[in-house]
Every structure is written in structure tokens, then in C-alpha cells.
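Subject: sequence -> C-alpha cells, single chain

Hey, anyone have a minute? Need the predicted structure for the following. Not urgent.
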Amino acid sequence: MSIATTQHQIITSISDTDASGNNSLVSISVAFSLVLLALHVAGYFYPSGLLWGIHFLGFLPFPYLIVYVVATLVGLYYCTTSNMEKLLRPIMKVMEEKQWRFIVLTCALFTGIAIAFRIQVPLLGDSFTFTNNLENTIKGEHRLSFGNEPLAFAFLYAMASLLHASSHTEIMSAIFIGELLLGYCCIVTTSFSVLLLFPESYDVRRLLVFLYLCVSPSLQLLFGYAESYAVVLLALSVTLLVVLLYLRHRIPLWVVAPVFILLIFVHYLGVLLLPLLFYLAYIEYKENGLLPVGIGVLSGATVIAAIFAAVGFEFHRFVPDAERSHLLSFSDATDQYAAYSLLAPYHVLDLANLLLLMAPGALLLLSLSIRKSSELFATRVHVALFLCAIPFFLFLMAAKFDLGMAKDWDVTAPYFAMVALCAAFLFLQDGSMARVRSMGIVIVATALSSWPYFTINATEAASVMRVASLMDRRIMPQSGYYQTSYHLTMYRYYRKEADSMVTIWQRYVTQFPNDTRGYAKLAKSYWETGERSYPAIADAYERWLQLAPSDTATMNDYANFCLFAAAASFNAGRPSDASAQYRRAIDLNPKLLAAYNNLGLLYHNQGLYDSALVYYRKATVIDSMYARGYRNIGSVYMAMGQPNVSIPCFAKAIALDSSYVGAYEQMGQALEAVGKKKDAMSMYRQAAHLGSAAAQHVLTQNGYSW
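Reply:
Had a minute. Here:
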């Protein structure tokens, strides 16, 4: 009997076992797909931020809706007929007989899809903050910030360094290349995991589970997503593979423990899988005693020590911010990191949106699998998969997402891929044709639900509109509103759309009038629009100071702005405005030498010598080493016709700064004015040596060399 014949008989026998019934599974799956279709259509007509899990078509042109509806209906028809088996047979044959060719072809297909759906604007998650961390680290402005994801950050930083990326655009390209590599690794690990889950050869369930994972929305993390969660996705994939290898008696526990440690250091949320590690340790203890468990602990501790040694045992770099709780309050949502409490209706709505985006098919498969509780924990593999999923769902129910769940979807995305694997495995336990066809329906529905999400993130204008729609205070906390405003501002900044930057922060300060950060960003945005916005910048600073009247940093920042504004006013022929702005700078920062000096120059140029002297002298009182102040005092006395009085001032300036060309020049002029020509020429010669063309000209005219 040939292999092909065996394969055909397996599929035929499965179909025969289904003849007696249970076709209701197919009907339920079709109904599920039609409900999902209806929800996405509703999202097209009402693309509200409150429907963020299903509203993607609402930001895309109408033809996308038509394609989605038609493709769904065609896919459902195809999966409910024998055509599906005809399609699966040759693919399964390649997967079974030419596994590495299958993997290579899958990687090639993945590459094409990743390029086609590459994210155009890093507005998902906290991408701009992440890329800024890499960019500033590469420029040497600070060391790499680990956050909650030390090894994930380190990997993407290494990719950027390896490819010599320094600008924002180059870093985005480096991340994309790194995620392609991660995607290839995920394909390999996933293909081996499904072989271990279904050890019987030519089992169509292997292919179905593999295809299901390959159309998961979590795949978005691999399309140039400027965050660390693609690394988490691979780490989870490797961890699950290692667990299955252990449960199939292919590797010892001491290999498993270091993988779990690495998972946790990739992202600290990996601690959710510690119950699984303890379960494996319990199995090892029951079968082989305490010694192998101890060796596993030692191997894990060795990995921890190696990671700490790699950063010189600077343990503080691995400690995340602990200023706030990461769990929702039961009844209160008073801090800026929560839009609602645990029991609030909008929390339920957010969870529904997240599940509709990330795991609609998985929820259906799980619900159809729960018939007898004894079957759910039938084997160690069943228990292991549940220990992956249950802690994650418990976390999901209570977690506080600082950016809002719609923006922080990426935190959960890698774990939903794990849930999808668990759900598919449980559902396909008996392998009946009804379940095979139902699984095909779920795969089609999942793929077509992922498609508009991938498309909108690969479309610049549509993704910007969608992100703006998420700025709803009912589902987005203040911290998320601020970060989203920042992300949109960065997008506008790179496009040199300064007026749009201003609009973003005007909206923010309207929403949160007591947040000083908003006025700071508003002032900086106005700055990008040029001098025409100087009055608006001053107004933003004034409103900022009303909220933080004793904020020295803000005062100094505002004072420095006043210097620029005063210079612009003076150049525009408005000396009175310039004077007022210099005075305001002095009020804000009484030690700002430049303000005193420039105000003195303003009065000096107007011939108000007494006033000029007042401010020049104040500058030298603040800083007795301020050479420019003494030179300017001397200049006033020269203008007043008192060269004898000016000479000590110039001498003081020269004593404080022996390279001060202007002081030498004016000292020469003062000495000439009192009849000390020889001494004057000596001063000119010093200025000439320092490069003064004017002094060189004077010396030449008087017959002196220099």
C-alpha cells in the first residue's frame, strides 16, 4: 500500500465515522462565522472606538467590505463541501513527506505576506517610545532601557546595531528584518510542535492546527511591529515546543528550566507560565526523584547568573517601575492609568473587543470542546496546555493596561497564539470529519478577520484615523491618551506637519486641563510652527505655570524661550516688546545672564546708557567672572565719551578671558582716545593675533606689523 493511498484512506475513514451525526458542529461553526461577518459589517458602518475589535473595515474603502463579505461566503461554502479535503490532501502530503521543503515554502509565503502587510506607521502599542529608546541608545545618549522586557529589547537593539541603523527609518527597517527572522523561527517551532501534539503520521489535524496558528491576528507582531512582542511570541513558541518534547520524553528537565528562565527575561509576564514549570517539576519528581529537579534548578540558576553577568551584575537595570499597581481596582478608577474599574461595563466591552480581535475562533473551539471535564485533563499534554491558558485568562480579567486595552493589545497577542493552539488541540481530539470541516471554517473566518486588521495597519492614512478613533476617555485612561497624542505627534513631526501637532495637543489640554505635560508638549509643538506662534507659546507656558507655579525647570525653560522671542521682536523692529520679554525672562530666572546682557544691549542701542549700565552691572553681580559684562560696561562709557573710565572695564574683561578679541579691540580704541597710541597698538596686535580683521587693518594703516 502506498503512502498516498494510506493518506487517502485515513481521510475517508474519518469521513465515514462522521456519517451518523454531529454535523451540528458544522452548523454551529457556520453560524459563528456569519455572526462574525455581521459584526465586521456593523463595524464598517459604525467605526467607533468602542468597537475597536471589529471596526477595521470602517477605515478602508467600500470595496474591501465587498471582498470581505464575498470571501467569507465563498470560504464557508468551500469548507462545507468535499472541496476542502481535496485542497488539504496535497498540502498535507508535502508537510508529511517533505517537511523541510514545506517549512521553506511556508517561510517564503510568510515573507511575501509580511512585505505586503508591513506596518507603515508605528502607531500601535508604544512603538514610538520603543524606537526612541533604541535611537537614543545608539546615539550614546543613555544606556539601553530594559523596561519589563530585557532580552527582547536587547535582541532588537542588537539587530539595529548589527545593521548600523541610527535614524528612525533605519531602525524601523532593522526591526522588520529582525521580525522576519523571528517569524521563520516561529514557523519551525510551530511545525514541530504540531507534530508532537498529533504523533500519528498523515494526520490532517497537524495541518489544520498549523494553518490556524498561521492566520492568527498575533501574526501582526511580525510585520514590522516596532515593539518587543515579536520576541515574546518566539519565546512562547520555543517554550511550548520544549514542554512538548519533555512530555514526549525527548529531553530532560534540566533543558526545560533554562528555557522558562529565558522566557521570563524576554518579558516578565512570562511568570504566568511558572505553574506549568512547577507541574513539570512535579512530574519529574514523581518519576525520577528529587535529583533531576535539583539539576533543573541549578541549570536555571546558571542562566540567571549568566544574564546578570552580561550586564556587570547591575541588578537595578532589571527592576521595572513599581510606582503603580498593574491590576484594576474593584470599584474605583481614580488614577491616570485606568479608564474604568474591574466591574465597570466598559471593562467588559474592552474584553469583548479584545477577544473578538484576537481569539474569536479559539473561544468557539474551547466552548465546543467542553463536554466532559474528565476529557479536558485526559493526558499530561492536556494539563500542560491548560496551565498555559488559565493563568493568562486570570491575568487578562484583572490587568490594568496603561495605554488602554485597544493600544496595549500587543501585551496579550503572543499569549493568544498559545490559547489558539490549546483550543485547536482540544477541539480536534476525536478527529471526526465534522470537526475537520468545522476547523476549516474557523480557519477561514480567522484569516478573513485578521485580513482587515493587517490591511489597515499597512495603510498609512487609515491607521492614523483608526488610532485617533481610540482616543475615547471611556476606554482609554489619561496615560494612554497622553501617549497616543505623543505617538500621533511624532508621526506628524516626521511628516513636518507642525499645525497638526498643535491641534493634537490643543485637544489634549482641553481634555486634561490640569496636566502640565500637555502644556509642555503644546508649547513645543507651537515652536515647530515658527515665530508666528510665539504669542501662543507664551500663553501655553503661562497656563503651564498656573498649574506648577514653583516648577523651576518650567520657569527656566520659559525664560529661555523669552530670549528667543525678544530677539525676534527686536529684529522685527519692536523694541518695547523685546524689552518686556527680556524682563519676563528675568522674572522667571533671576540668574539668567543672557537676559540682563541682552536687555542692557537693547537700552545701549537706544542710547539709554544709564539703563544699560544698570543691567550690565547686574550681570556682573550675578557672575563676577562674566567677561562680556565688563566689556559691555566699558562700551557704554566709551559711548558716553569717558574712555578713561572704560579702560579698567576692558582690562577686567581681558583678565577674565585672555582670548576675548572684542575686549582687546575696544581697549585699543580707549587707549587711542586718551593718547596712549603705543599701548593701543599693543592691544590691536593682540586682537590681530587672535584673528581680528579690523585690528589687522588698523595696524597696517599705522605702519605696524602683526
